[in-house]
């Protein structure tokens, strides 16, 4: 076998994020390049900038139902040369939230910047968060992401932002991240998905839109759920990700694709945005019905 590395930017001229490289066999080179170029230049690409003033309230966007997220797993955390990835058992699944199907977990990975600077893929009103977690799920009747991408809603990705805080550390994540610097493949023991995300009652506000994978080949098969509340993480923990390296030895920084045009796509929101956002939990629970009425 003879493989050739092609920098992604050569294939997709609209995409300037450099870290992702494609490995294509010579024989299928041309065919794949054409297909990837077509997908990446299409009209339902991700990530996007979410303009909160323009989101459309959708009452069908009920809370995501998490199954198996509390189960502890033993798995591998891998520096795969592009990002940090954790393979997940498909016992973990999501449903509800107007997804229309059960989706089983496949893997999670992260996108970040440099030394804790801006690094998320999605932006909110033009603002980038320092890091973004993607938990990738596929419709339960498929066996792999490769199969699921042929279905326009075959993949469901949950996106969570991290925000820098200057107070206490997020203990669970410290343990998780430190191990990833020891080698390219480290066992992760007794970790549950719930330890990596926020308490479920803090995940009721989210954005929904139809988009694509943000890595080659940009397949437009993703139902995106982007949670509004960010996970707090200390600045030094966020910076630590810049110590990782790509397979060619250069610093693994800025592992995010730039925002893409919306081309008229709506972004839906699970709650009325108008009054509830910054209200204390108690007050908002009392007034939720009132807020909905005033939209
Ligand atoms: Zn991603």
UniProtKB/TrEMBL annotation:
Under PANTHER family, the record lists: CARBONIC ANHYDRASE (PTHR18952), CARBONIC ANHYDRASE 4 (PTHR18952:SF95)
Sorted alphabetically, which SUPFAM superfamilies does this protein's record hold? Carbonic anhydrase
Q: What is the native source organism of this protein? A: Sinocyclocheilus anshuiensis
Q: What is this protein called?
A: Carbonic anhydrase
Q: How does it sit in the membrane?
A: Lipid-anchor; GPI-anchor
Write down the superkingdom of origin.
Eukaryota
Transmembrane segment boundaries: 272-293
Q: Which residues form the Alpha-carbonic anhydrase domain?
A: 1-271
Q: Which GO terms describe its cellular component?
A: plasma membrane; side of membrane
Function, in words: Reversible hydration of carbon dioxide.
Q: How does it assemble?
A: Interacts with SLC4A4.
Query: Gene that codes for this?
Result: LOC107694023
UniProt GO molecular function: carbonate dehydratase activity; zinc ion binding
Q: Where in the cell is it found?
A: Cell membrane
Give the required cofactors. Answer: Zn(2+)
